[in-house]
């Protein structure tokens, strides 16, 4: 899941209300290019971090972030990480002031979202750090949620279901169509409609389909059409889960 | 899946270009109410079908449709059924002229779609019937596809993946959030974005998340957080399927 604040996105808004002092990237040309855009210094070594900065934002992959947190210390600076599933105490050695900004969105450079609507989850280890990270977050989005690290982990997990798994179901649906020379376009209005409805309705209450109707005849037909064991298993398991959830709602 | 043409929807557009002669419903009051709206006759018995009609549209549940097809015969009339998974030859005894109109959309009375964009799948047992059903379909939508019954069955199956199963993933995602007192609203922009992207991109090629990255550490964390066997199984199976599909694309 590309649920991280891309440096591009961060800078897009950040530099309006905050002074960007330095950009560090392993790729010195990338750092140089961005630095010229935002009129700041650049470097490619973490040891070269500018001493005057108040805040350091680490927009890094999980393993790189953890490695840096165990090797460096910036006691007087506010350290902000942007990883969805790293807890603050996993990087507690890096500073006394740590916080996180996590953008609950799948950001692509070519398709930057309208900044005001992007949900941003913040967390911090002290009240002061929380106030500071909130100020920074507000310069990126007006849609800010404060969750603790445990909630954030569950939200990251829930996003895997709502985004990654959903996208995979689209791809399986497309595969079924393609194998029969059916233009996948025919399903696109339905996909949009299903996503649209969840904006206002509880998805459990608007569930439709053969599984929730216990229409075993249609389900048997479908299982016969499916051509791989994995697809049959997915059909079985998700249908079972729909029925199990219905029972739970009833009792 | 509520993938049927609701009589309300059909009539909404149908009556502009075609003359509705009679509405039949088991619920005589419902029939009467609709008939007054469309200035036609009404009845509550199939035996009372008006002799002057050229076309009879059966918007019925699968089992009721099959039962009627085996009990009645209307040899000179065009019979149109609206079921997603019934083949024409399953109702071949009812007439020499049979066709189907299937609306690939989840229609709710309160939220009727813009008629021009709704994909309609048509099929018929003869060229003449196909021409006739096409004329009728065009009075409902400009987005018409002609698929044979076998393709239609696969499309119905693909719709279960893209609509019913996807909606269920939303509901599981919401459940994970609710159990942690997380407002599900925080995921809604991501859900919209994921559905939006599939309009233009191949979902297999834009798959993100820990599974496709083979990020086993994050997947193990997620599996520990999941609190029921069914959720763990779904996480395992869909992650496996994402990885399996990636391998297939590579080879």
Indicate the structural class of chain A.
alpha/beta
Largest interface: A-B, 91 and 91 residues
Low-pLDDT stretches of chain A are 1-5
CATH architecture of the largest domain in chain A: 3-Layer(aba) Sandwich
Quaternary organization: homodimer
Work out the strand percent of chain A.
5-15%
Secondary-structure element pattern of chain A, one letter each? HEHEEHEEEHEHHHH
Quote the average pLDDT of chain A: 89
State the shape of chain A.
elongated
Q: How much is the radius of gyration of chain A in Å?
A: 23 Å
Q: Helical region count of chain A?
A: 8
The percent of residues in helical segments of chain A reads 40-55%
What name goes with the CATH superfamily of the largest domain in chain A? NAD(P)-binding Rossmann-like Domain
CATH topology of the largest domain in chain A: Rossmann fold
The largest pleated sheet of chain A is described as: 5 strands, mixed
- Number of E-state strands of chain A: 7
Question: What is the CATH C-level name of the largest domain in chain A?
Answer: Alpha Beta
Please characterize this protein's 3D structure.
Chain A is α/β, with parallel strands linked by helices and 251 residues long. The first copy, chain A, folds into 2 domains: 7-147, 3-Layer(aba) Sandwich (Rossmann fold), CATH 3.40.50.720; 154-250, N-(1-d-carboxylethyl)-l-norvaline Dehydrogenase, domain 2 (Orthogonal Bundle), CATH 1.10.1040. In chain A, 46% of the residues lie in helices and 12% in strands. Chain A has 8 helices and 7 strands, in the order αβαββαβββαβαααα. Chain A has helices spanning 7-17, 28-38, 62-69, 127-138, 149-179, 188-197, 216-225, 229-250; strands at residues 22-24, 41-43, 55-58, 78-81, 97-103, 119-124, 143-146. In chain A, the strands form 2 sheets. In chain A, strands 3-4-5-6-7 form a 5-stranded mixed sheet, with helices on one face. In chain A, strands 1-2 form a two-stranded parallel ribbon. The longest helix of chain A is centred in the middle third of the chain and has 31 residues, at 149-179. The radius of gyration of chain A is 23 Å and the shape is elongated. The relative contact order of chain A is 0.09. Mean pLDDT of chain A is 89; it is low at 1-5. Chains A and B meet through helix 5, helix 6, helix 7 and helix 8 of A and helix 5, helix 6, helix 7 and helix 8 of B.
């Amino acid at each position: 899941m590309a649920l991280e604040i891309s440096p591009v996105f961060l800078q897009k808004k950040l530099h309006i209300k905050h002074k960007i002092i330095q950009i560090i990237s392993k790729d010195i040309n990338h750092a140089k290019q961005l630095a010229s855009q935002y009129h700041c210094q650049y470097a490619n070594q973490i040891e070269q971090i500018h001493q005057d900065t108040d805040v350091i934002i680490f927009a890094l992959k999980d393993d790189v972030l953890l490695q840096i947190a165990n090797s460096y210390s910036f006691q007087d600076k506010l350290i902000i990480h942007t990883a969805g599933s790293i807890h603050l105490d996993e990087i507690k050695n890096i500073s006394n002031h740590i916080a996180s900004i996590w953008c609950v969105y799948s950001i692509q450079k070519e398709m930057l979202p309208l900044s005001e609507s992007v949900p941003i989850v913040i967390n911090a280890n002290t009240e002061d750090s929380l106030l500071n990270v909130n100020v920074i977050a507000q310069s990126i989005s007006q849609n800010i949620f404060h969750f603790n690290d445990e909630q954030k982990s569950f939200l990251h997990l829930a996003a895997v279901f709502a985004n990654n798994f959903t996208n995979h179901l689209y791809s399986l649906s497309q595969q079924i169509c393609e194998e029969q020379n059916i233009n996948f376009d025919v399903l696109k209005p339905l996909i949009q409609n299903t996503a649209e409805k969840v904006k206002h309705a509880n998805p459990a209450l608007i569930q439709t389909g053969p599984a929730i109707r216990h229409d075993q005849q249609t389900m048997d037909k479908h299982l016969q059409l499916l051509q791989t064991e994995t697809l049959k298993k997915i059909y079985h398991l998700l249908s079972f889960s729909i029925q199990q959830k219905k029972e739970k709602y009833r009792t």
